[in-house]
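Exercise 7.
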Amino acid sequence: MRLELDQTGERLDAAIARLVPELSRSQTQRLLEEGLVTFEGKPLKKNEKSRAGMILDITLPEAAETDLQAQDIPLDIRYEDSDVIVINKPKGLVVHPAPGHPDGTVVNALLHHCGDSLSGIGGEKRPGIVHRIDKDTSGLLIAAKNDFAHAHLSAQLKDHSLARTYECIVCGNLKEDSGTIDAPIGRHPTDRKKMAVTEKNSRNAVTHWEVIARYRGYTHVRCKLETGRTHQIRVHLAWRNHPIVGDTVYGHKKPELGLDTQCLHAAALDFIHPRTGQPVHVECELPEYFKKALSKLEPL
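Solution. The predicted structure, written as tokens, is:
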């Protein structure tokens, strides 16, 4: 791959990740560390600065076979073609294998369902998960079946044209009917497992919200993400003193309405199809746990 830089003074890893949407910052750093990014035949370092007009040669490694196992786990598929698949993930299902969850994840299920049609972005043959949702968040998740689709969808995620809409129940009554929370999010200063609104080592985060219905002591809210930081909606609403019901990490420590995990559902996805260029809208109904919680509330 040949890439021409358009700015001067930017770190190379940041510049490449910005100009090549299918590569994350960490993947770009790995390519630089392995000497796979060169200028006039000379390998470059990740902390070197860019110069407008530089033409880089980038060697992308062949996708390696993953050691993850394909597992026949039922998937609630809401949209699928040869490029893209959108599933409705149930609460409690982990997206990626990780310590404590080596298998039984969405990735294992997609490996079984998609077979050889997998995205190899980043040097590993794997289902092209474009974005993540938490284990205990339910709802829509999009994955790419090939590198072409992954690159286009990743670009939409970066420029915010891939729109994600969530619904949740929060504690307390929001005074306004709608609004925007624009507050940077980074690692919590004392608890590294949590995120927090902070100016230190943070990234900008923007959440748009609107009230769907008000109840005694609670509010049913719709949120649209402009950015996609870890735990963004949960952190932002808790920062506004309206934590999500059941979120014992960022909100009240005792379960509410029969829920001990967040009442948060990814209800809709809008994106431009990577091959046809046509807009695609996918939505899914509220799950039973969410509807059961709503049924316990007293309307105002």
